[in-house]
Amino acid sequence: MKAFVYRRYGGPDVVELAEVPKPVPRDNEVLVRIHATTVTSGDWRVRTLHVPTGLGLVARLAIGFTRPRQPIMGSEMAGTIESVGKHVTRFRVGDEVFGFPGGAMGCHAQYRTMPEDGRIARKPANLSFEEAASLPFGASTSLHYLRKAKIKAGEAVLVIGASGGVGSAMVQLAKHFGAQVTGVTSTNNLALVASLGADRVIDYTREDFTARGETYDIVVDTVGKTPVARCMRILKDKGRLLAVAAGLPEMLASVWAPLTGSRRVIAGPAEERAGDIPEIAALAEAGALKPVIDRRYRFAQMPEAHAYVETGRKRGSVVVSVEHA
């Protein structure tokens, strides 16, 4: 099968098309013929080792010290089941599915196997393959952090980076849970964030959102460029800062913040739960979670998709359609 691989860390030029063995499903696995995948900020980080402050050594130990252990990137996919292992009972050949291997990656390819009890579910009938592939990364990350924060209806939530892959899902899911949501984004994305259900939007290029004199129950930082101290000063008593793009300073703050007051910092990698994918499917079918797709690329344009994501200007998801001979 064809797959895009990277054998060394670097820019979009390290992403190359290659012929690799087609995987064979084990007894408890399904083989998915991939029709759509995405390029996320996570792909950019593992390709360049551009990780949050203080985590460079940890990243090399996890991803590969001198070169990547997993040469095929891509954490999201949607497609059709081509074959199943002999013990599989939940899925059948021909089922349309979407999945999220997450940190295991491997979706920038024509095929991928998934355990039937893994992070895979039937594709929502109201979504295309491209739309379904765009949902798992942002939505599952948002669900993790909102659960950790124990969000309650009526709480005030501020989302920094509200137009990104995680931010756009965070706005929608916080609204679904009954919160009053304020989105922070750039001028060009104000209308998009409002269309996702945000009660208010703030243009960070024209206004300092930490100097408005307003406080929030939850502040979500999906970008990682606002210092912890600035976020903490706009939190209410018992407020929670969700540091999605946390580096070492935010992780340390998650330890000392509870010792110095009632506010908390929630940081660390998002838990990848199998149950999230069926939940995301149900939310999408109910209209509570809508895909946000910035650009679409063909499979042969994978390096161009990487180059666009690296600009840091994408809105929602960048989707890649996967062709088959």
UniProtKB/TrEMBL annotation:
Pfam family, one: ADH_zinc_N_2
Name of the protein this chain belongs to: NAD(P)-dependent alcohol dehydrogenase
Natural source organism: Reyranella humidisoli
Ranges for domain Enoyl reductase (ER): 10-320
SMART domains for this protein: PKS_ER
